[in-house]
Amino acid sequence: MVFTNILVAHDGSDHAKAALEMARRFALDDANVRLRLLTVVFPADVDPGMYYDGTMGPDVESLELDQEMDKAAQARALDELHEAAAMLEGIPADRIACDVELAPAAAEAIAAFAKGHGCDLIVMGRHAKRGILDFLGSTAKAVMRKTDLPVLTVE
Question: What is the DSSP string of 23-87?
Fold first, then answer.
């Protein structure tokens, strides 16, 4: 099977860097391969406050602060992805895309992004903690359950 649109889930970890290197090898072997680097940023929590009528709900200041925090986190994540993309030696910049998704759950965001962008392979690091039962990290396992695409995990 030939893969041409590879999603690399990237969280900045050493495992993610290893996944990025694996995807780079695919792209070096075939000039038709495009890489999409994705980082998932978790949204800031909305702190509930008291409305003037005595009911509970988020206050405007908290919402605005959370939105600012989300935008700042997304901008930092995008900068980090661009730094990671710059390390993909031998791959022209026009074959690399960097994306940031704001989502409460990484696995769902990765699977949905891959499907929505026509990816044919997901490459991601795995953070195995202990023993054969935990060979894959929880995010990698969850992604595999949520997509019908092949998922290549790298440690």
Answer: HHHHHHH-TT-EEEEEEEEPPPPPPEEE-TTS-EEE-HHHHHHHHHHHHHHHHHHHHHHHHHHHT
